[in-house]
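Render this sequence as a predicted structure.
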Amino acid sequence: MFDYNTSREHLNLREFGRNVQKIAAHLLTIEDKEKRTRYATGLVELMRQVVPSIKDNPEDTQRLWDDLHLMTEFKLDVDTTFDKPESHLEKPPQKVAYNMHKVRFKHYGHNLKLMVQEAIKMEDEAQKHDAIIHIGKLMKSYHMTWSKEFVDDEVLVKNIEILSEGALTIDINKVKDENLFEPLYKERIRPANTANSNNRNKKNSNGHKNQNRRRRN
């Protein structure tokens, strides 16, 4: 039987997806409270990864716990330092304005996001400049791995500005002129006709060798 969307369980919070809601529902079946709390804490961190724009601070973490309680219809009983939403929140909640456009940058990875945050904190402008260049190199490397194509430096500069919320900027002309975003590693992208060309050359070479053998004989 096909699993049509119309027959699936209703999603309380679509931004986290169906798999997260299934895991949340599974938490209610765990009898041991300590284990249930441990699994719930792990799920909250997973929710943070699903929506990368959520920051690692008490306010956003409280929101994540609120959303988890909402997904479990406020039946989840766990021991955390974050307050459980009161019953008055059981009415349809106001949608949290998560910045969903940053989900596009998931292929860069969480570690690169942390590097951006560390670069923002740097007070030495020279060190910050070097950090931006290193981030750009990594982003180009990741992009080549992800899409198997080269990416324009202007796109990378824009992505850095978005991820840093405008805190990290660099002169695009200087980036291009000095090739500052040279990738840390290069994956050779073989043209589609290269293999065929090599095969033809190999066949021609073998053909010449066979003709030479016949002449000697």
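Summary. The chain is about 55% helix and 0% strand. The radius of gyration is 26 Å.
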